[in-house]
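Record format v2
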Amino acid sequence: MRDFNEITAFFIKEFDAEIGRISEQQPQNLYEPILYSLKMGGKRIRPSLLIFTYNLFKSDIDKALPLAIAIEMFHNFTLLHDDIMDKSVLRRNMETVHVKYSENTAILSGDAMSILSYEYLLKTENDNLKEILALFSKTALQVCEGQQFDMDFETSDKVNVQDYLKMIGLKTAVLLAASLKLGAILANAERDTSNTLYEIGYNLGIAFQLQDDYLDTYGDTALFGKNIGGDIYSNKKTFLLIHALEYANLQQKETLNYWIGFHNPSKQEKISAITSLYNELNIKEKTLSEIDKYFNRAKELIAQLPLSPPQKNALLSIANSMMNRNN
Amino acid sequence: MRDFNEITAFFIKEFDAEIGRISEQQPQNLYEPILYSLKMGGKRIRPSLLIFTYNLFKSDIDKALPLAIAIEMFHNFTLLHDDIMDKSVLRRNMETVHVKYSENTAILSGDAMSILSYEYLLKTENDNLKEILALFSKTALQVCEGQQFDMDFETSDKVNVQDYLKMIGLKTAVLLAASLKLGAILANAERDTSNTLYEIGYNLGIAFQLQDDYLDTYGDTALFGKNIGGDIYSNKKTFLLIHALEYANLQQKETLNYWIGFHNPSKQEKISAITSLYNELNIKEKTLSEIDKYFNRAKELIAQLPLSPPQKNALLSIANSMMNRNN
């Protein structure tokens, strides 16, 4: 069993070599933005997880590369199109594709990336290819559904915590879950094991997204790497805000709506007012407890896997590191 | 062998039933625009051709339905995204999706349609599935490349006739070609036969697109169903304009560029001036001869197919009817 960091390094090296070939393809105006978007970087967590789970059962990790590339290609396609829809101008401190090139370029290059992800899928030589394709497509469609729910929520005042958990499940957790499961299916693992790996990824994905929401308000700026309160300032429908809107009393709701509707407020004042309200409602504790619920469920499921103790420990350690935890 | 019209009617009935199911899916804001776009109609020529070629070799045409639906779904996805990129407000006299809903909706619903087309592909039960998927994906990517070349050409002054033929080959002809070939692969036809069917579709596709260009200038309004000269007025880089730009002498080029750069000209005056110039350059005859070249090649290839005379005649009659010809 290879170390996770070693697997990530292996993937990045192979991925970079592979996408290097894209630069030669014509029309340049289609392929250059694809290369640009793929070179923005990122932790390559999904393909690394896929190769890692494959490697739990098989040693020839080269065989998992096309599928790992497909997952990363698909993920980057969704980021590219999401950036257009969210009108984001920066991603990882670089101009987004629709800003650097044009919106039309971003639409079409994204479309091509979505198709390219299937091209890589098809390079997979495996008896379970049909099952792999079916899970990949189902997941891809769920990610689109998640993005639509997310956009719907931004203009709806009737979103509850359950809706929110379902949305992040689709938008974020299923792709992580599928990455783990695809590695297992590719390695011809037992069906129960593959399904458990899916559940682990799903629970981890939810925990991870909730933690992302949590850190925006309660994170340590130095560790978190972005400014505190950005989500609060932009009225983003996070777990915290939705929880607050659901459980606030009439007066608290009025205060929340006052700040949400305030055009051009003082950033510091708004963040501090809403954070106080979150504190009144014990949102910090409630969010932490929700994160723990999902994270603990993932850990329980890891313990149940029919794997060796070192294998389970390796998986646990990946899970902890995703959540920036040491224990 | 079933009649082509019968096959189209069969497809439309089954397709409408199938897409009816989409209306029940959530989120509604994702699936309703998909349904809207699929219900805009159209001749369903690609899926009908696919089923027709399948039916040349096998009688159980039900088996070809998922693949036929996939092709039609993919084609409509490209129309949806092209309409955003081209800023088209109407399609078949209905508001385009990005106008009726929003641009974000149109991007995301299109993405989902692209993935849905793979979901239908995967419903195909066939030993040649991998080959089918590979041809479908390759073709899908070529269509994106064609759209990019098309957009590039609009802002380039160095496009020649060869570039243009390559572009319409990618944007239009390969999907028609693939429709014919996919039906044959699905029916497990001989490789040579499938390849010839591909070439027939490709040549027909080029002939069809060139004829579309031709009719915009030289068509009969009553028969053509749209106003003459729309392409001329909007400076669309058709075969005619590219041919003119390539073969015009200095003075003719000056005249062309004068009208192309004229902001808000009289529509009638511009159309008539450029048509005169086309006439001077014998563009009418050259275009007709180019159409004939591709159409005749398609007919030659049909004659070479290892099929019965009634089968070849049926295919010839479809080709003629696509080109609105009786002979």
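Chain A touches chain B through 34 residues (CB under 8 Å).
The CA atoms of residues 142 and 170 of chain A lie 5 Å apart.
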